Amino acid sequence: LLSNDSVQGFYDDFSPVIVRAYLMNHGRIRALYQFVRDCLPTNAQNVLIIGCGGGDLADFIVRRVAKSAK
Description:
By secondary structure, this protein is mainly α. It has helices spanning about 5-25, 25-40, 55-65.
């Protein structure tokens, strides 16, 4: 079983990688975000996110796409 510190350390180290890739116009990441933007209704009230990763896509959904979703 991993300690909380090791899990937190992993995500603390990983987050800047995904941000850098997005800012550097990484095509795969931009395509994924555009796909979500195109497919998810902006008036969605509920969104089920099955976590796998650092949470950047979940954050994008609630802040940029389905702002009123729970």
